[in-house]
């Protein structure tokens, strides 16, 4: 279908040329001015219908949400705020939209309400901006790795293992719920299941990525991952996308450098390639923060915040140093934490992570060398016998955005740790094989894609940066 995109028209020199546009009506004022949007830009094209030039039956059908085709002449706009406008001489209604039933009115709707109509929320500027930034970031991430010679490895969505050993998996099965086949001792007989064994949706592509890295040396996965954890927070999803690079001949320092470079690359990409969207989101956030008391508003606007991240190196400290800072903080002494920090070994809650980032260092922080008790089985053990070569990157307003480690490449130590943590070694024989045949130091991490999008768009709820969020008790659309 022959049409010109509105984005292109807005930068065209108007000379009364005839053009055709197609889009959806955002507003129709005084039976004369149509604000038309086709998704190519956040801006609407102002289209002017000459009074009495069009059949009244057609005029009635120009309602908010309707899809229409307009042909007219492009002229320099007399009004403020736009360079061009369209003087309409032909209108075709492509799809009506009943104004009394259409849930999106030309007014401000709350994000909560829009979440309930997530099938229509793409039609608002906020979500158009968010999902365009999300797209750009996905592209930037592939570009980052491609420029550095990484191989994009598609790791499986259905697996027979639990990569994190945390037991938070969604089962994949075609067995009937009633009349489930049983073994002689009464257990479910998974031999009769589709794959002839127990399977689940992957929680992480890491273990398979490690197999790739042990030959290709630099690989990454970028795909959906699933966690059946019952966390109803603004930062958890049951289905989220994760970027997981895995690098051979690399230690934890290389890993931190790579993660910091990737995050900065992504932020910089959004700032330079999504100018219109980021500017819009910055202003949206300023408006939203006006509802907060003065002292709770951010000191920096969104663009300043992103720029600040680019201009500063991330603080790198050990878990042990972080515990000291937290334990001695006024916040802890005045019992302002919900979970007080008293002993080494405690898992950090997001309130602690955010204190370190937002109050203490006031910039992104990388915490390393966590107690082995609170980390996964595959992390490289330090000589102190207590800690592992783990790293978490903490971001302002987000908390943990990256989790990773140097991997335990020594077969015996890995097997020992798996035994201690009751990780079934027979099931992971293929993983252990990499340690049997040509093992080498290697490291990797996982970046939660939605948490990155959350940070860069300045949105506050993770449900608003993925098109169709899956959370406990919610899998609509
Ligand atoms: O820290 P996690 O659990 O690490 C792993 O899965 C490792 N296998 C990664 C690796 O080393 N290859 O998850 C990594 C990141 C977190 O830092 C967080 O950003 C994100 O994934 N994440 C979630 N994002 C949204 N919803 C959830 N439920 C998430 N769980 C983790
Ligand atoms: Mg983690």
What key phrases describe this protein's structure?
globular; alpha+beta; five-stranded mixed beta barrel; 477 residues; binds 4-amino-1,4-dioxobutan-2-aminium adenosine-5'-monophosphate; 22% strand; eight-stranded mixed beta sheet; binds magnesium ion
Give, in order, the helices and strands. HEEEHEEHHEEEEHEEHHHEHHHEEEHHEH
C-alpha end-to-end distance: 29 Å
> Which structural class do the helices and strands define?
alpha+beta
Overall 3D shape: globular
Summed over residues and divided by their number, the pLDDT gives a mean of 96
Major sheet: arrangement of strands: 6-10-11-16-15-14-13-12
Low-confidence stretches: none
Oligomer: single chain
Helix content: 25-40%
β content, as a range?
15-25%
Radius of gyration: 27 Å
Q: Sheet bearing the most strands, described?
A: 8 strands, mixed
Which molecules other than protein and nucleic acid are bound?
4-amino-1,4-dioxobutan-2-aminium adenosine-5'-monophosphate, magnesium ion
Number of strands: 16
Number of helices: 14
Q: What this model shows, in words?
A:
This protein is an alpha+beta fold and 477 residues long. The chain contains 14 helices and 16 strands. The chain has helices at residues 6-9, 56-60, 111-116, 125-147, 206-216, 252-273, 275-289, 302-311, 319-327, 330-333, 350-361, 411-420, 429-436, 449-457, and strands at residues 18-29, 33-37, 45-49, 67-76, 84-95, 151-152, 158-159, 171-172, 199-201, 218-226, 239-248, 315-318, 365-371, 387-395, 399-406, 442-448. The strands form 3 sheets. It has an 8-stranded mixed sheet with strand order 6-10-11-16-15-14-13-12, with helices on both faces. Strands 1-2-3-5-4 form a 5-stranded mixed beta barrel. A hairpin with a 7-residue loop joins strand 2 and strand 3. Helix 4 (125-147) packs across helix 6 (252-273), helix 4 crosses helix 7 (275-289) and helix 6 packs antiparallel against helix 8 (302-311). The longest helix has 23 residues, at 125-147. Magnesium ion binds next to strand 15. 4-amino-1,4-dioxobutan-2-aminium adenosine-5'-monophosphate (4AD) binds at residues 163-164, 204, 206, 227, 236-237, 240, 242, 244, 400-404, 444-446, 448, 450-451.
